Amino acid sequence: MHAQEITDDTPVALVERNLVFACSTAARAEGVKRGLRVREAQARCTQLQVFPYDPVLDARAFEPVLASIEEIMPGVQLVRPGTCVLRARGPSRYYGTEELAATEILRCLEGLTITGARVGIADGPFAAEQAARSTGGEAIRIIPAGQSPNFLAPLPVSLLPQTELTALFRRLGIHTLGDLAALDTTDVRERFGEPGARSHLLASGLDSAGVVPRTPPKQLDRTIEFEPPLDRIDQVTFAFRATADTFIAGLTKAGLVCTSIRIEVTAESGQVSERTWLHPRLFSVTDVVDRVRWQLQGSGAIDSGLGSPIVRVRVTPESVDDIGHHEEGLWGGGADERIHHGLSRVQSMLGHDAVLTATIGGGRVLAERQQLVPWGDRATGAAGAKQPWPGSLPAPAPATVFEARRTVGVFSSGGEPIRVDDRGTVTAQVALFSATGSIRDAREVSAWAGPWPILERWWDARQHRSIQRFQIVDADGTAWLLMLDGEEWSAEARYD
Questions:
Q1: Torsion of CA 339, 343, 348, 353, to 10 degrees
Q2: Cβ contacts of 128 within 8 Å, gap of 6 or more
């Protein structure tokens, strides 16, 4: 779903590790809150739209907000995307009062079409954040100097950042920040260590952490706008080449190389094609231009024209590295560089999907774990391969995995086909194996193990799968990985 399709009254939740990381105002009105499990949140709000939380996208979306605040009040520190702090003394003196300074921040955010922003002012960053969160419907809440301990006293200890300690505090009968602040500092430190002492300091309203202004990032992204809009791919890529030159030159001047870029292509109709491209080594000018062309070809290109003319192309570095880590060796490039150059050249001439790399993804069946991805891209299932897969095959993996499963036969000593009953028990001892499926070609089995069931989507009547896995060693000493699907035996792989 595009951002344009999400309205202010749409209940939305961002999910991380199956827990709600953040939610919209409409979702909170239905009882959804941070920390809920996804199923519980969906039970509270049946229209809840769930999206995975992307910290990179979150930080990128909040960057214009920080830049706008820095234009009127320097010295902004980013706490996390959506929350920032700055010293109130300078702005309050410049604008006259703390309230006028806070009003100016809200006016700045309104210029970015941001609604619902709140400002809290207190003695420390922690108290100021709680003041902003409990404005009581007002946009600004100011805690008078020296009154932060009284303000924090009735608030729950769950607001403290040390989540592992807050549960312990509640079990010990410490339910509010005032309860924690009333304890002796030395006793808290001896019992809970430095994290407890830090929590006690925050609860007492004595947070003395100074504001550390962020260093504004260097403007390394480059944008080109077309007037009039261009409706041919070759015109866009030719015009973009000079921008790619300045993009790479800017990185080089900063002592950086780029291994991941984000390209945004904006059409005259307002549609935006956005994609992140990876590179096995580092991007050159030609590589950047190729990625723009491939993205245009994949965004609705018909013959040599586009569905809607292009008005803007923007390239942004996603991942950068020190240029010193990518210098050539003393005697020039090695074999890896030559291989990369050759593959990249073929890919540039034939297209993004012309050169594929074999990778291992997640799953249980070996054939499904094989993935072919374009050269330089990251496999979509690479992260899943590292996750636990109950029922997956343990190491070592077979050397030969058949592209299509081969029909085989497994028989008892009397020549009867082997089956597995509903209790997962074989109907007879495995004695004969046929690589062709015919009893006439059967050979004796010297060893076998199994069955190991694979049960997937048992709740789905159409897509459920129940397979029994076996390992068999025939009389020639060849080991096979077999599967029994219903009454059909097949060989999934062979141990060479």
A1: -160
A2: 85, 120, 121, 122, 143
Q: Do 361 and 385 meet the contact criterion of CB atoms below 8 Å apart?
A: yes
Q: Please, are residues 259 and 317 in contact by the beta-carbon 8 Å criterion?
A: no
Give the pairing type, strands 465-474 and 479-485.
Answer: antiparallel
Q: Sheet harboring 12-16: ordered strands across?
A: 19-23, 12-16, 49-52
183 in Cβ contact with 201 (< 8 Å): no
Identify whether the C-beta of residue 367 lies closer than 8 Å to the C-beta of residue 402: yes
313 within 8 A of 240, measured Cβ to Cβ = yes
CA–CA separation, 355 vs 345, rounded Å? Answer: 10
For the stretch 454-473, pLDDT in tens is 887 777 777 777 888 899 99
Confidence (pLDDT) at 301:
44
Reported pTM:
0.52
CB atoms within 10 A of CB 255: 10
CA distance 70 to 77: 10
Rounded Cα distance, 409 and 340, in Å: 45
Find tokens 């409990």 and name the residue.
134
C-alpha of 243 from chain center: 29
Q: What is the pLDDT of residues 294-326, one digit of tens each?
A: 888 875 543 334 568 899 999 998 888 877 766
